[in-house]
Amino acid sequence: MRVLLTGGTGYIGSHTAVALIDAGHQVTLLDNFANSKPTVLDRLSEITGVTMDFFEADVTDREAIDSVLAHRAFDAAIHFAAPKAVGESIARPLHYFNNGVGGTVTLLQAMDRRGIRNVVYSSSATVYGMSDELPFREDAPTEVINPYGRTKLMCEEILRDLRQSDERWNSIALRYFNPVGAHPSGLIGEDPQGVPANLMPFVAQVAVGRLPVLRIFGDDYPTPDGTGVRDYIHVMDLAEGHVAAVEHLATEPGHDVINLGTGNGISVLELVEAFERVAGVPIPTEVVGRRRGDGPASWADATKAGDVLGWTARRSLDEMVADAWRWQSQNPNGYPD
Ligand code: NAD
Ligand code: UDP
């Protein structure tokens, strides 16, 4: 298959490009570099031995997307391109609706014009909101508490409506839990701009000496050790989940929503302990108050992905940490410009 990856030079897109090539597919990457760097393309070629087919374009730009789709015979698209910072989405909702929702509509319209009607969409476990009915199953009620989450839910609903209006459309919305880690080569990984908002890249930057101390946001949650619990999933497992989803679309028509998680909850303290043990580096911590908007715990019921896609996460927490650490220690300042 030839697959278009919008947001293909980003964190999850770049790892998915490797997994697709490993599985024998051809990929074309599209990105506007809003949150990634061109160096990723060289690193991907180094890993795969394949020169990357790349278009610099914005998914909100109708003419640019039409032109990309006219240049290749795509079988499917995986749509990653969107901004993803919750706090920024509250400050700049129109930016999020324009890129997250408007960009998705622009892409789908362009695909429709060319008769390409298979799409995998990057959704998020954030659509489950703060419910304490764990684990989260795909049929649980959804609840969005910020504009970012709303863009994800709106796009899921757009895909569902599209299928209802026209049975030629096939789509899977993948609800990611907490992607972490990196490709085992250490050549590609997560490269947040500024101070990381997420736990694993923050811990990795403390380990490498870029940041002095990890602030633990609350140790009084109703969890076994009082710290927040999340379902961390190795980004290569997540990437392979996309391969399974795009292959599934080719043979099984329809619309579906599927969790990509491990089904295991890990606390902040457990993750820090694993990092110290695997990397052999002490992580100074201090406990501070809870972060606004955080829930106590979130983990997936991962059975549907196994049943429908034949995919389950295989990599352990220690592998997530080892690969995050290899990427961070080999690239202490992230990708070069
Ligand atoms: P990322 O920022 O690393 O990758 C997104 C890529 O999209 C970037 O390279 C960025 O430059 C590009 N992009 C953004 N807006 C664009 C536009 N208008 N046109 C073209 N390219 C554009 O983020 P990621 O972690 O790889 O996330 C990928 C997708 O998965 C996003 O939709 C995100 O919301 C979703 N997601 C991520 C997580 C996570 O924890 N990383 C969790 C759930 C869902
Ligand atoms: N967390 C923390 N310190 C940090 C970043 C995160 O204690 O500097 C905690 C956070 O409160 C949550 C967990 O780590 O319990 C995972 O946070 P992350 O932002 O990575 O994921 P999300 O909360 O979006 O699922």
List the helices and strands and how they pair.
Elements: E1 2-6, H1 11-22, E2 26-31, H2 39-48, E3 53-56, H3 62-71, E4 76-79, H4 86-91, H5 93-114, E5 118-124, H6 147-165, E6 170-176, E7 178-180, H7 199-207, E8 214-217, E9 229-230, E10 232-234, H8 235-251, E11 255-260, E12 266-267, H9 268-279, E13 285-288, H10 303-309, H11 317-330
Parallel strand pairs: 1-2, 1-4, 2-3, 4-5, 5-6, 6-11, 7-10, 8-13
Antiparallel strand pairs: 9-12
Helix pairs in contact: 1-2, 1-8, 3-5, 5-6, 7-9, 7-11, 9-11
Bound molecules: nicotinamide-adenine-dinucleotide and uridine-5'-diphosphate.
Uridine-5'-diphosphate (UDP) is lined by residues 178, 197-199, 202, 214-217, 228, 230, 268, 291, 294.
Largest sheet: number of strands, sense, barrel closure = 7 strands, parallel
| Spatial arrangement of strands, main beta sheet | 3-2-1-4-5-6-11
* Distinct small-molecule ligands in the complex: nicotinamide-adenine-dinucleotide, uridine-5'-diphosphate
**Roughly how much helix do the residues carry, as a percent range?**
40-55%
The rounded distance between the terminal residues' Cα atoms is 32 Å
CATH topology of the domain at 2-179 and 233-262 and 301-313: Rossmann fold
Show unreliable segments.
none
Q: Give the overall pLDDT as a whole number.
A: 97
State the shape: globular
Structure summary, number of beta strands: 13
Task: Write structural notes for this entry.
This protein has 337 residues and is an alpha/beta fold. It has a domain at 2-179 and 233-262 and 301-313: NAD(P)-binding Rossmann-like Domain (Rossmann fold, 3-Layer(aba) Sandwich). It contains 11 helices and 13 strands. The chain has helices at residues 11-22, 39-48, 62-71, 86-91, 93-114, 147-165, 199-207, 235-251, 268-279, 303-309, 317-330; strands at 2-6, 26-31, 53-56, 76-79, 118-124, 170-176, 178-180, 214-217, 229-230, 232-234, 255-260, 266-267, 285-288. Helix 1 packs parallel to helix 2. The longest helix has 22 residues, at 93-114. The radius of gyration is 19 Å and the shape is globular. The two termini are 32 Å apart. The model has no long low-confidence stretch (mean pLDDT 97). The structure holds nicotinamide-adenine-dinucleotide (NAD) and uridine-5'-diphosphate. Residues 178, 197-199, 202, 214-217, 228, 230, 268, 291, 294 line the site of uridine-5'-diphosphate.
